[in-house]
Design goal:
With about 110 residues, the protein is mainly α. Helix content is about 75%, strand content about 0%. It has six helices and no strands. α5 runs antiparallel to α6. It is globular and about 45 Å long.
Length: about 110
């Protein structure tokens, strides 16, 4: 949910996390979702997937639910937008708060 995502981002920014660190956390989450879907298609068991991706036990249920939230096309679009955001954060003078908000909007509001 977008409101929750905004609050988390604000807490991270107030905790002196950089925009790149926050973007890296979001990107890592979606990379793991994509990897898990690939492993699932290869017939790897749920337990093995969680182990290979080092998903902590307390996040297991939430992570498994997230696998079903997005189709392949949506994941590709999200991952591409994360790549573009990363590039913009590193190479432009764009407002970093606005860019991060845009990323959160594109990812959190998908479902």
């Amino acid at each position: 949910n977008l409101e929750r995502s905004e609050k988390i981002a604000q807490k991270l920014l107030l905790a002196e996390s950089t925009h790149l660190q926050i973007l890296a956390m979001i990107t890592r989450n979606f990379r793991q979702i994509i990897q898990a879907r690939v492993l699932k298609k290869q017939g790897i068991t749920q337990h093995e997937i969680l182990s290979k991706l080092r998903i902590p036990n307390f996040l297991t249920d939430k992570f498994l639910r997230s696998l079903e939230k997005f189709n392949s096309r949506e994941l590709q679009e999200i991952y591409e937008s994360l790549y573009v955001a990363d590039k913009l954060l590193k190479t432009s003078s764009i407002n970093k708060d606005s860019l991060l908000f845009d990323v959160l909007t594109k990812t959190a509001l998908r479902k």
